[in-house]
Write a structure and sequence with these properties.
Blueprint (H helix, E strand, L loop, with lengths): L1 E6 L3 E4 L9 H4 L7 H15 L5 E5 L11 H8 L3 E5 L15 E6 L2 E6 L14 E4 L12 E3 L10 E2 H10 L10
Parallel strand pairs: 1-5, 2-3, 3-4, 6-7, 7-8
Antiparallel strand pairs: 2-9, 5-6
Length: 180
């Protein structure tokens, strides 16, 4: 687990891009004819809303590259923003680095816990903190103040902080919320 202090930049969240994963088109029923079309559309959508000074949290399954390769760096170089990666189940390219598997941050006074996998409880969930996850490709309903930020769940765009805040404002309290 890693913690960051309060972040005061434009922040975006995404997951499950699966760059260079041909079979994800079939598995997740993505509307693309081929892997390169999928890669380019996700990059185009990303760059249409993320600016160079923005922070982007990739919450797992960024790339499906099994061998030691610089392909992931090629994609990162094409994407706007400053990138922080949380390891997912297909992030073999992160193997040689110290992976982050759970990350806690504060953005505009909101405590956010990120993990590639959906959690039932998470740090400060009893205070209605937020949990962002991926892995389920929009097929697992969220509970309380949690949300799947995978590209399959947002028309292949990242979510902005404001997108997440608007979603969380409409959600029920976390099941373990303690009223003070």
């Amino acid at each position: 687990m890693k913690k960051y202090n309060t972040i005061n930049h434009n922040v975006f969240f995404t997951a499950d891009e699966h760059y260079y994963h041909k079979n994800i088109i079939k598995y997740a029923e993505r509307p693309f004819n081929c892997m390169s079309e999928m890669n380019e559309k996700i990059i185009e959508n990303h760059n249409s809303i993320v600016k160079n000074n923005d922070i982007v949290f990739h919450i797992g399954d960024f790339s499906f590259v099994r061998k030691k390769s610089d392909v992931y760096q090629y994609i990162i170089n094409k994407l706007n923003g400053n990138h922080i990666f949380i390891k997912g189940s297909h992030d073999y390219w992160i193997k040689d680095k110290t992976p982050i598997t759970l990350l806690e941050i504060m953005v505009n006074g909101y405590h956010i816990t990120m993990c590639h996998y959906c959690l039932r409880t998470w740090p400060r969930s009893h205070y209605n903190s937020w949990h962002l996850y991926g892995h389920s490709h929009g097929k697992l309903p969220s509970i309380g103040k949690s949300h799947d930020v995978g590209v399959d769940n947002n028309n292949f765009y990242p979510f902005s902080f404001d997108d997440i805040k608007n979603l969380m404002d409409k959600k029920d309290n976390n099941p373990n919320f303690i009223k003070r």
